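Team,

Forwarding the record for the chain on the shared tracking sheet. I've put the sequence and predicted structure together so nobody has to dig through attachments.
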Amino acid sequence: MSARNLTSVAVTPETVTAFNDEIQRKLDRSVWNSGCSSWYLDRSGRNTLMWPDFTWRYRRRTRRFDAERYTLTRPSGTPACTH
């Protein structure tokens, strides 16, 4: 943030929705969503705690910052260009 002179970084709603949809699709095929009651599931039965893939894939996905998936704001309060 310092290098880009940013005051805030927020994930775009589209990115959040796409990520959550992907995770839920993967979890549907997992033992973590087998229909049993567990502490992994919230009141509506949605699993928001588990990463349904290998840890090395998580690391690969989070290794680099993809500015195009965020709203970046400068000290003036104006959005920063992401390119």
